Amino acid sequence: MSKVTFPQDHFANRHIGLNDSDIQSMLDVLGYESLDHLTDTVIPASIADDAALNLKPALSEEQALAELKQLAAQNKVLKSLIGQGYYGTHTPKVIQRNVLENPAWYTAYTPYQPEISQGRLEVLFYFQTMVTELTGMDIANASLLDESTAAGEALTLAHRALRGKRNRCLVSKNCHPQTLEVLRTRATPLGIELVEFDETSPAESWDDTFGVIVQYPDTYGTVTELTDLCNTAHENGALVIMASDLLALTLLKSPGELGADIVIGNSQRFGVPLGFGGPHAGFFAVRDQFKRSMPGRLVGQSIDVHGNPAYRLALQTREQHIRREKATSNICTAQALLAIMATLYACYHGPTRLRSTAQRVNQLANTLRDECKAFGIQTNEVVFDTVTLYDVKAADIVSAAVKQGINLNQRSDNTVSISLDETCEEADVVSLLNILGSSKQSLDMASTAEDRWLRSDTYMTQDVFHKYHSETEMMRYLRRLSDKDIALDRAMIALGSCTMKLNAASEMTPVTWPEFSNIHPFAPHDQTLGYQKMIAQLEEMLCACTGYDAMSLQPNAGSQGEYAGLLAIKAFHEANGDQQRNICLIPSSAHGTNPASAQMANMQVVVVKCDERGNVDLIDLQAKIDANPAQIAAIMITYPSTHGVFEEDVTKVCEAVHQAGGQVYIDGANLNALVGVAQPGKFGGDVSHLNLHKTFCIPHGGGGPGVGPVGVRSHLAPFLPKDEHNTERTGALISGAPFGSASILPISWMYIRMMGARGLRKATQCAILSANYMAHELKANYPILFTGNAELVAHECIIDTRPMKDHGVSVDDIAKRLIDYGFHAPTMSFPVPGTLMIEPTESESRAELDRFCRAMQGIFNEYTAVKNGDVPIDNSVLSNAPHTMDFVLQDNLDVPYSRLAACHPDPESDYSVKYWPPVGRIDNVYGDKNLICSCPSMSEYEASE
Ligand SMILES: *Cc1c(COP(=O)(O)O)cnc(C)c1O
């Protein structure tokens, strides 16, 4: 069999870290002749498919960029004053260049290893601080996927808070329409009754009501007096959820002051481009009493072993990995990078400038309102930035505005909304007035909103919002922060199940092209043709890679893809009259999002056992099916399994479930082991979500963004999430924006377009080769827990570190010691507690794989010394890891090993650029006991002094 080689300029040569001689020598180590020989051995014959993927021939980096530029050029960039949750904003260039376009930030992973994540954790902590301050709540999380899904999470939190004893929630019809729609999606499966009401008139009844949801200011730009509503709700035992706007809150009374219990919204207009709808960081803030039931990630302050303050993720026991179907939500990936951008925008401007920006926007809006009234157009009483015109010829106004390069929001035949933002000038208001028929050429500026709406408290008094207002200081702050972290720009991050592969510069480049970044999600169809085409092409490419018939790009994380897929299954069964099918079979090894998503779809989770080889136990599966065959809705399996193995019997599993009338959901997070070698849509799957932020090169962003497309076979296609551009799809709306995180889709488009069918297949083969090579190199010291055919693993392997515990060395010790060697630890304790799961990906070089193996050998030697009794475990290199510079350099260092052994353990590595962890090992328990999730304001600080 021949070697797969590519012409010089083929991108596969850049993306794949192994050269041909590396590949050959690694194959030699394993005893295989060729990549095909290895693949044919490891992939079960029942699913192997080596037909070339139906993709266009690969383009070089330059050619692909040129082709995408032509698509981008078909988008028309107008000034969008459409509002409805998405606003024009200026991304400070210092943030664009040093964060959004900087791999030190965008290639980082979710901060599960806090010692190497202090930079991003610090900013997320300030995100929580900013949200807490502006909303007037006690505690905020570190972002959610978008405003609409945050509303959905708030709905279920309120429902749970009253222990599900009440079933009705009032929802203002003046909420953003997409929020109403996602709320309906979330409420329906759970049997929650949503009752629309208008907050200007009293609610008809509060019977059985657990919550009330209002938008402040509302979608038309109006604020009604909400304090009374909050009081009435509380008197009736209901909670108040307020959707709000951070810029408005720099000016208006905080929701906390009005009486809200939960506040949600979007931080997009703090410097994050529109991007056709995303990614943007949703926010979620609550009163103290709900902190333990809050969804998503929460950053808390704790201390390290030296007693210094340190950040880490708090209250993780709320999350899906531990609570599974009882988790507070299925959120895993959120929007860390975008939350970071929004926070830094606030740091760069500080509260004074934010407030004056808000004042100027408000004055412009009030001026527009007054002028409209002056020549007879009826408007709302604006309170912040949005003027709604009533009784007008809406279509005429909107099309006249488009001719002037401005998009307005047509709400109905006779209603138009205009949302002003920080990019608007007086000249824009003059243009608007001219479009409306006035001949005014200059303006008398109106004043800001009346005092009764305005907040009088101070906020964001913390240092961080006052120190970095010059570009030099901001630039250096960003550098200091990113230097604290390990991202892919420093070292391999071999996180099993997460596929931390190259996020190439060519793939990232289009994200900040204005033709992609400055498009409003509700811009008219004829202005977004470039996006439409790019998206349609990407859907087709992903179908070609997976064997599915249709693909929706709407879900903005894997967890949301799971939810969309399960809702499609549910709708399919209902359409067939099979309402009773509500059991979702899930193997015990499944990722925590699986049972959590099933619960959100109101399916009953039935756990299927795994056998001692880690495979789905076919006998137990059949028993679970036979117990209730008519009730089986679906099975959710991951393939290759979360154990990193190609299970031989996967087709039998699929057949058994199909036989019973159930659908097969294949979690596609591990698709990096399948692209070009087997197709889930062909070997038994009815539906899968993919993780574009794993297999298809979207960077992890330190915990998001992500995209979790859901692919289906044709019978489920009508039940995909609805989208105005594709009317055949009638499923429930999953995200606020029609294409979720649209502006990062060019990354995956570029990847597939540049790799082509042969490149993708080779990438998969190299991912499998590297994993098996590492397993081979490590297994003498660390047993490989699960293998498949010929003792091979798929694209990742679990090494068993539990035996070391007998001599006092924990998996934590190993993970932290790897930091001294300059590495991020592999996935810890998933799916098997006490073990490490290693996934090298195809992008790493042989040299980097070997460096990691040397580190693991070094750690094994350190363990052996402990085991042999040569050194006590306490005060060993392992238990003291990671070693900070302060610790190692202290004059009276009292450890039974050398300074060099502490911080320079691998003599073959170049430590002239050593990574120094900024903190020692962090105490999680202390942090959860003494929960601090935002920094105190000056006044609180003074009070405590
Ligand atoms: C990553 C992952 C998910 C969840 O994806 P998110 O984008 O983080 O929501 C689901 N299943 C498996 C097996 C995964 O590895």
TrEMBL record:
Cofactor(s) needed for function: pyridoxal 5'-phosphate
Protein name per the record: Glycine dehydrogenase (decarboxylating)
Species: Arenicella xantha
Glycine cleavage system P-protein N-terminal domain: residues covered: 13-436, 464-717
E.C. number: 1.4.4.2
Gene3D superfamilies to which the protein is assigned, alphabetical: Aspartate Aminotransferase, domain 1 (3.90.1150.10), Type I PLP-dependent aspartate aminotransferase-like (Major domain) (3.40.640.10)
Positions bearing N6-(pyridoxal phosphate)lysine: K694
Subunit text: The glycine cleavage system is composed of four proteins: P, T, L and H.
